[in-house]
């Protein structure tokens, strides 16, 4: 049993110069075989392993990660957590996640700094107003908090905003979800890794998948850069390269992979409290606890695997930020980066079974994966353990592209994603 | 005001031009050519701020972009700037700077109380606490947020403006030091177009801070001669105060030119900054190198600075950082700084040299100059909290991991520290170039370029001046040649010294009296308050990947992005893990090199220019008529035309009624128009629309539905056959661009064999739609076209003149009324409109906007793509399956055969009549069949359009409802917030003229 984290343990360890802290997680070499192997050591993969161990009694399992834990989109996103999705299926999924977020810090005994500072989604055109209201009504009837804001309400929530939007796209209103907010992304990966490790899950970094052993349509093992691992259950929980892995397993996924970029400013004293998303002009902004303005930009207009993003996207986003917040024009961009997002034609994820027995899919989250992290892993663990989709996961089956039962989040364009 | 520490006999500041400025409200004086940092040091000020976490007193560490400590707030009010590096801010008259993160000031900072609890704040402490009680995090967070952040964001709109420029060149040279100048010279001599940029106001780079000679003369003479020659080449562009900050794909390079920050009075007509977007054929990176501080105990005390910075202050700015210096070094090169300082009259109290043996060319010269050297010594302690007072030296044990023997205290008022040098490989790394670890200099150097670029001078690990010049000359010549210019004779390399900074000893942590972390702090990242002990803690806790170390401790993540800390952190991690540095790896260098103003990224794309605004040729008329406008795509469309103080509701009621009663006129110019020509045009139309086009004869028009490959409605509109193999397609106003892109994608990638040519002609026409029972009478007065129903039936078009100008008139209708859409050349649009308005007076012609258009079409049950459809609606859902031909294939057809598409419970298009005819449903309202007391409730659909109709004399709506096509007559409810419920009846969506008699009249 690991030492619990608290102000008391900090004080106690201070006496020994913090030299007696234990490893947050162990990094063993892979065993020859596991009851399940989760591919992908990001938030979703680690949560999956956590619930497999915690709720399904599967302790002989491993999470394998090509790079370092949380180094993919878990550590590259703008940390927004919300559940105000329009479609019933999405709302169920993200609300399930939001409820888990609300208790994550205490459950993990690791402060993930989940901060319910509210998320505003602005509407800049009549059509956006219509779509936003439709989403709010839908949220409300699904039991999700979501309220319409008139422009003056927006101003009250975000005093520094210029409602004229510089003149071109005035703010016509927006929605607010008060339970929504941000979290410390890296801490999510680390907190779950620590909890997994404590339950005996092997966390293996620097271990790239090179192929799958499949016999008679059933997976029997994973070939990795650290050798062969026997297993009858493989959960693919990767972003950015899920198409590549599916290819190794002999099937195709309907995803496009594109760089999505984000950037931060230099840190300043608190100036903006909420998360404010402006979908029409593509400018999302919040301020981190460290004081940096965290800004989400758009995806490149073409497919690619560079964790980078193209210049014009940065220009467009910052022009939009300058329009909505003229006082930020003198702020400076400190760092800009990209993450590769795998997006399905309907902008919803794929969660469930795959064409290969024993291989399970949790991928295609596009730009919206971080907020779903705990919910995604929770229902996916149930899916992997029981070899059938969890009820919340069921609508997100790969098969929907055959049946046409799409959950088209593009349609909810007012909810930018 | 005395500048006690100003040297009169050296430096490049202009002693004839004194400059007054204030620091924390107190007046000081400097000279033109000073930075804020050099002017503060001239006045004896080292303590400039407090650190991020512990609020430790902090001084000036560097002399350039690497500065982690001396971040100041420049000015107040609208032009305020947070977190400005004092080492780069040029001094101007009346400049007001203040410390950040210190209250009331850096001397008496209340936040310093944090130091008492410092032991509780190791790396990542916040992940381990603030968890109890459960709901308290918002309160903890509030305190943390107020403690964090450095400077203050402006609170007023920015009075300045920004500019962007594109440039192309054959050779871009980043950096105007010896290597960069030399490279620009040879490239320019070959005739290449050269862009040479340097972040400093003056070119010369390290030579500005040096006392070296080139060809026997002061190096600065060579700089001047080189610049003179470069200025003589017409194809050379020289950009001072311009930082090359971003290196993207295909040699796309971003530069930021600073234009007014150094001026006391900011000219109104000059942009504050200009962002250059340069596409360079070839690139020479000559970005120099940055010195590393040594990591010894309490190495952050004000007065402790980089040796190179001390040298720069003495030689470049004519400022003594103090009177009595202790040098702490691990290499020979640092003695060059000591010698220069001694020459300037600074007493070198001692040189603490961690090397077992102090040797090397500069070391020897220092010995000859009588400098006391303490070889194989470490730093036991540093005295002085707000300013270093003394440093305690003590011999190192054989393994270099602890101190041994007796210590001695050396009084001093500043310390020059050198831990070796890092080539500035940021741009090279951004360009995706691969780095290699050079063990001899313990630094990352460029290995393989992946773009058309080469590095020259210190940034590629060439350390002597002679070598840098040679590198530069060769790189410039090579770049020009690679860009297609003739070989130039590089000429002989000017003569200069060629000393590096080796030998050195790589002692990543200089041990103190007690183990690291026990007493005092060994700072690695000054700005983020990351110590060697923090790095060790991260590794101890399993955060062993360098990315984890970085994120857990935040090392290298401050505004300096680790320019002085990254390699020291790597060294410490490597030692702790017992792995060589190359196996630890590096974190990725991200753009920008130094922070870049948001405003510069936005450039002039702000205000009215944020996005293009499209206007119809009749726009000015609408403005005069007092129209309210709405954004539709990029278009500004008249929304409604209020008369006097009329409300929107009243205006729309009036416009709707007047149109149905007599005649209304709508500006329909914004509809997208695509000219479709070619022998395969009809086949093409057959493939992109759901319905068939083979039977459409010249003179006829037909409504078409366009689907995406997912089978969902993506656009609709009328296409006319102008003549054989020549069609005019109409799209929705907002969808025109996407539709053209969609069509071109299919033509170019899926069906390259089709001989079809698409041209957008949206801008070529102006269109007015006349609608209402008097439309024919009115139009006939101004046209030579026979408008009789027999001569001009519904869904045809005729060509002739209207108002005396050539026109094409379509008899189509989106209002559901008798309607003509008149197209004229765009130039004639206003004339046509005005003629119709004046002739129409006798019919009480009423201009109407998009809102009335929406009401009229909704009365008729016509959909609007994007309102009734949202990308999830099929033609079947709309009850338009008859428009889907079974005789041919079309985009989306296969998707329509998927099982879910045929599900009778899909949401389908219906009309709604609220029980209360005065009640207008909210658009977007959700519908339920079974009411519950409270959510959640099962939703069966939503309201897509909803209006009050003066023509129906009641409210009505359009909606999508599960299985709605077969639910006409059934009840649904819209539960609103606050408990109100609106009951409605599902109906056929056609409310007006269901037989189409008006339409075809």
TrEMBL record, chain A:
It comes from the Bacteria. Residues 35-382 form the FAD dependent oxidoreductase domain. The keyword Nucleotide-binding applies. Gene3D superfamilies: D-Amino Acid Oxidase, subunit A, domain 2 (3.30.9.10), FAD/NAD(P)-binding domain (3.50.50.60). SUPFAM superfamilies: FAD/NAD(P)-binding domain. Pfam families: DAO. It is found in: Cytoplasm. Keywords: Cytoplasm, Nucleotide-binding, Oxidoreductase. This is Sarcosine oxidase subunit beta. It comes from Rhodovibrio sodomensis. The lineage of its organism: Bacteria, Pseudomonadati, Pseudomonadota, Alphaproteobacteria, Rhodospirillales.
UniProtKB/TrEMBL annotation, chain B:
Gene3D superfamilies: 2Fe-2S iron-sulphur cluster binding domain, sarcosine oxidase, alpha subunit, N-terminal domain, BFD-like [2Fe-2S]-binding domain, FAD/NAD(P)-binding domain, Probable tRNA modification gtpase trme, domain 1. Residues 519-602 form the SoxA A3 domain. Residues 907-993 form the Aminomethyltransferase C-terminal domain. Residues 618-888 form the GCVT N-terminal domain. It holds the Pfam family FAD_oxidored. Keywords: Oxidoreductase. InterPro entries: 2Fe-2S-bd_N, BFD-like_2Fe2S-bd_dom_sf, FAD/NAD-bd_sf, GcvT/YgfZ/DmdA, GcvT/YgfZ_C, GcvT_C, GCVT_N, Sarcosine_oxidase_asu. Belongs to the GcvT family. This is Sarcosine oxidase subunit alpha.
């Amino acid at each position: 049993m690991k030492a619990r984290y608290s102000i008391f343990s900090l004080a106690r360890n201070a006496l020994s110069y913090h030299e007696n802290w234990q490893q947050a997680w162990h990094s063993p070499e892979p065993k020859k075989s596991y009851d399940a192997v989760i591919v992908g050591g990001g938030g979703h993969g680690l949560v999956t392993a956590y619930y497999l161990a915690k709720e399904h009694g599967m302790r002989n399992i491993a999470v394998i990660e090509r790079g370092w834990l949380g180094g993919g989109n878990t550590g590259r996103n703008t940390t927004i957590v919300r559940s105000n999705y329009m479609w019933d299926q999405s709302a169920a999924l993200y609300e399930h996640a939001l409820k888990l977020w609300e208790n994550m810090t205490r459950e993990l005994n690791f402060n993930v700094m989940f901060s319910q500072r509210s998320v505003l989604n602005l509407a800049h055109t009549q059509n956006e107003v219509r779509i936003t209201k439709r989403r709010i009504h839908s949220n409300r009837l699904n039991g999700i908090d979501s309220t319409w804001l008139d422009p003056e309400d927006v101003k009250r929530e975000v005093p520094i905003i210029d409602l004229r939007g510089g003149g071109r796209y005035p703010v016509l209103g927006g929605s607010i979800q008060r339970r929504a907010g941000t979290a410390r992304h890296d801490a999510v990966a680390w907190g779950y890794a620590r909890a997994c490790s404590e339950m005996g899950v092997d966390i293996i970094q620097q271990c790239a998948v090179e192929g799958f052993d499949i016999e008679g349509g059933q997976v029997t093992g994973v070939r990795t850069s650290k050798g062969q691992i026997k297993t009858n259950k493989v959960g693919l929980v990767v972003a950015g390269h899920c198409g590549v892995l599916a290819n190794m397993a002999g099937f195709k996924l309907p995803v496009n992979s594109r760089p999505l970029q984000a950037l931060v400013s230099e840190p300043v004293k608190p100036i903006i409290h909420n998360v404010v998303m402006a979908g029409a002009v593509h400018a999302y902004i919040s301020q981190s606890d460290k004081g940096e303005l965290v800004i989400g930009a758009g995806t490149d207009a073409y497919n690619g695997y560079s964790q980078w993003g193209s210049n014009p996207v940065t220009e467009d986003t910052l022009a939009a930020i300058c329009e909505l917040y003229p006082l930020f024009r003198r702020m400076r961009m400190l760092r800009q980066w990209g993450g590769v997002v795998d997006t399905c034609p309907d902008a919803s994820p794929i969660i469930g079974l795959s064409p290969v027995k024993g291989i399970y899919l949790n991928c295609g989250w596009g730009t919206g994966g971080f907020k779903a992290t705990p919910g995604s892993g929770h229902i996916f663990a149930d899916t992997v353990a029981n070899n059938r989709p969890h009820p919340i996961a069921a609508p997100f089956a790969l098969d929907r592209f055959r049946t046409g039962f799409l959950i088209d989040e593009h349609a909810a364009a007012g909810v930018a994603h | 005001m005395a500048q006690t520490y100003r040297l009169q006999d050296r430096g490049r500041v202009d002693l004839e031009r004194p400059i007054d400025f204030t620091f924390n409200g107190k007046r000081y004086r400097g000279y033109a050519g000073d930075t804020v940092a050099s002017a503060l040091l001239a006045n004896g000020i080292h303590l400039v701020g407090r650190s991020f976490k512990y609020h430790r007193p902090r001084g000036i560490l560097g002399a350039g972009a690497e500065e982690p400590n001396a971040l100041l707030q420049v000015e107040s009010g609208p032009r305020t700037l947070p977190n400005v590096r004092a080492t780069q801010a040029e001094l101007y008259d009346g400049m007001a700077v203040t410390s950040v993160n210190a209250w009331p000031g850096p001397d008496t900072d209340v936040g310093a109380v944090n130091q008492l609890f410092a032991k509780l704040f190791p790396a990542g402490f916040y992940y381990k606490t603030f968890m109890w009680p459960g709901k308290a995090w918002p309160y903890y967070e509030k305190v943390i947020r107020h403690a964090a952040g450095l400077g203050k964001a402006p609170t007023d709109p920015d009075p300045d403006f920004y500019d962007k420029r594109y440039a192309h060149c054959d050779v871009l040279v980043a950096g105007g030091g010896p290597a960069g100048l030399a490279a620009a010279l040879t490239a320019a001599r070959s005739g290449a177009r050269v862009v040479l940029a340097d972040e400093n106001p003056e070119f010369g780079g390290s030579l500005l801070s040096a006392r070296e000679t080139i060809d026997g003369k002061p190096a600065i003479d060579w700089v001047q001669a080189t610049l003179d020659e470069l200025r003589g080449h017409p194809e050379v562009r020289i950009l001072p105060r311009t930082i090359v900050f971003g290196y993207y794909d295909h040699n796309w390079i971003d530069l930021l030119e600073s234009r007014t920050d150094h001026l006391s009075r900011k000219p109104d007509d000059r942009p504050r900054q200009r962002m250059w977007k340069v596409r360079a054929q070839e690139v020479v990176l000559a970005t120099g190198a940055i010195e590393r501080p040594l990591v010894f105990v309490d190495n952050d005390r004000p007065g402790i600075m980089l040796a190179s910075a001390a040298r720069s202050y003495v030689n470049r700015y004519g400022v003594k950082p103090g009177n009595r210096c202790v040098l702490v070094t691990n290499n020979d090169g640092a003695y060059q700084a000591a010698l220069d300082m001694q020459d300037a009259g600074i007493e070198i109290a001692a040189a603490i040299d961690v090397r077992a043996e102090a040797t090397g060319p500069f070391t020897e010269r220092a010995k000859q100059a009588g400098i006391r050297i303490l070889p194989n010594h470490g730093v036991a302690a540093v005295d002085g909290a707000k300013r270093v007072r003394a440093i305690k030296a003590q011999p190192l044990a054989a393994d270099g991991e602890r101190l041994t023997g007796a210590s001695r205290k050396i009084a001093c008022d500043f310390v020059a520290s050198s831990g070796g040098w890092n080539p500035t490989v940021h741009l090279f790394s951004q360009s995706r170039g691969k780095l290699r670890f050079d063990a001899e200099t313990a630094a990352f150097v460029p290995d393989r370029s992946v773009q058309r670029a080469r590095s020259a001078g210190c940034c590629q690990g060439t350390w002597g001046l002679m070598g840098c010049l040679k590198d530069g000359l060769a790189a410039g010549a090579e770049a020009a040649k690679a860009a297609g210019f003739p070989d130039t004779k590089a000429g002989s390399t000017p003569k200069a010294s060629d000393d590096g900074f080796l030998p050195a000893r790589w002692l990543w942590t200089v041990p103190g009296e007690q183990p690291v972390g026990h007493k005092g702090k060994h700072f690695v990242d000054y700005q983020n308050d990351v110590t060697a002990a923090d790095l060790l803690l991260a590794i101890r806790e399993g955060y062993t990947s360098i990315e984890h170390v970085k994120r857990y401790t935040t090392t290298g993540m401050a505004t300096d992005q680790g320019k002085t800390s990254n390699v020291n952190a790597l060294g410490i991690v490597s030692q702790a893990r017992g792995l060589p540095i190359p196996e630890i790896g590096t974190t990725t260098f991200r753009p920008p090199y130094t922070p870049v103003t948001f405003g510069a990224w936005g450039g002039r794309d702000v205000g009215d220019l944020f996005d293009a605004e499209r206007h119809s040729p009749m726009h000015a008329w609408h403005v005069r008529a007092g129209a309210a406008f709405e954004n539709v795509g990029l278009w500004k469309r008249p929304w409604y035309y209020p008369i006097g103080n009329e409300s929107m509701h009243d205006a729309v009621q009036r416009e709707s009624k007047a149109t149905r009663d007599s005649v209304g006129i709508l500006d329909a110019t914004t509809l997208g128009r695509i000219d479709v020509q070619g022998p395969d045009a009809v086949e093409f139309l057959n493939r992109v629309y759901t319905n068939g086009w083979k039977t459409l004869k010249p003179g006829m028009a037909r409504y078409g539905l366009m689907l995406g490959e997912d089978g969902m409605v993506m656009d609709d509109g009328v296409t006319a056959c102008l003549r054989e193999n020549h069609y005019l397609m109409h799209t929705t106003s907002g969808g025109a661009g996407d539709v053209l892109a969609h069509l071109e994608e299919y033509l170019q990638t899926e069906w390259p064999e089709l001989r079809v040519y698409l041209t957008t002609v949206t801008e070529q026409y102006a269109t007015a739609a006349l609608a209402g029972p008097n439309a024919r009478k009115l139009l006939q007065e101004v046209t030579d076209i026979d408008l009789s129903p027999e001569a001009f039936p519904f869904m045809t078009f005729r060509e002739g003149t209207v108002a005396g100008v050539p026109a094409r008139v379509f008899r189509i209708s989106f209002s559901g009324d008798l309607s003509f859409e008149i197209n004229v050349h765009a130039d004639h649009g206003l004339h046509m409109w005005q003629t119709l308005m004046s002739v129409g007076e006798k019919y009480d012609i009423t201009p109407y906007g998009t809102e009335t258009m929406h009401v009229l079409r909704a009365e008729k049950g016509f959909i609007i793509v994007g309102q009734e459809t949202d990308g999830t609606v099929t033609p079947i859902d709309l009850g338009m399956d008859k428009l889907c031909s079974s005789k041919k294939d079309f985009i989306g057809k296969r998707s329509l055969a998927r099982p879910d598409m045929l599900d009778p419970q899909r949401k389908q298009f219906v009309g709604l009549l609220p029980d209360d005819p005065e009640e207008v449903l909210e658009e977007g309202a959700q519908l339920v069949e079974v009411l519950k007391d409270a959510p959640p409730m099962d939703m069966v659909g939503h309201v897509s359009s909803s209006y009050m109709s003066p023509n129906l004399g009641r409210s009505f709506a359009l909606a999508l409802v599960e299985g709605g096509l077969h639910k006409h007559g059934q009840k649904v409810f819209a539960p609103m917030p606050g408990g109100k419920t609106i009951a409605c009846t599902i109906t056929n969506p056609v409310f007006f003229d269901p037989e189409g008699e008006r339409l075809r009249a």
